[in-house]
Amino acid sequence: FILGAAQFLCIPLIGKFSAVEAVNEAARGPAALVAASQFLNGIVFAGEGIMQGLECYRGLAALSAIAAVFFLSSLEIVKSLGLGLNGVWISFLLFNGVRLVGVLLHRYKIGPLARRASQNVGDGDAHNTSDGENNKTPAPAAAGN
């Protein structure tokens, strides 16, 4: 969020990098799109990192393939509409949007963390441990070290 806000606040400085106004104008739209995408990107990258940590490689591969199809299809559409560089960044936002939907779906509906959370709902005799897992019996004490 902070990076995106900082990038957005720097958009007026684009004119300092080139004396050619057409270049400055061409950079403003993509710069705003990139700044707006930072919040989305952070969630996507964290979610994919969680999926890697859970060793959900097939899910990641499927998600990447689906997102790539959307990205490539979107590029064809923005090309036919003549959206230029802004269209490329819009396509990239769509790509990350699809990935966001995938990691959220994995986390809250279909992945092992979603299953664990649904198993713990209504588990009245369970107690919470410091790591957030519900256990019905306390962990055994470690043998003498």
Q: Could you explain the architecture of this structure?
A:
The structure is a single chain. The protein has about 140 residues and is mostly helical. About 70% of the residues lie in helices and about 5% in strands. It has helices at about 1-10, 20-55, 55-80, 85-110, 110-120; strands at about 125-130, 135. The chain has a two-stranded antiparallel ribbon with strand order 1-2. A hairpin with a 5-residue loop joins strand 1 (about 125-130) and strand 2 (about 135). The protein is elongated. The termini are far apart.
SSE layout and pairing:
Elements: H1 2-9, H2 21-53, H3 57-81, H4 84-110, H5 112-120, E1 127-128, E2 134-135
Antiparallel strand pairs: 1-2
Helix pairs in contact: 1-2, 2-4, 3-4, 4-5
> How large, in whole angstroms, is the Cα Rg?
22 Å
- Largest beta sheet: strand ordering: 1-2
Q: Please provide the ordered H/E string of secondary-structure elements.
A: HHHHHEE
Note the main sheet.
2 strands, antiparallel
Q: What integer is the average pLDDT? A: 83
The parts where pLDDT drops under 50 for at least 5 residues are 125-139
How many E strands?
A: 2
Which percent band covers the strand fraction? under 5%
* Total number of helices: 5
Q: Can you give the helix content as a percent range?
A: over 70%
Overall geometry: elongated
Structural class computed from helices and strand pairing: mainly alpha
Alpha-carbon distance between the two ends: 46 Å
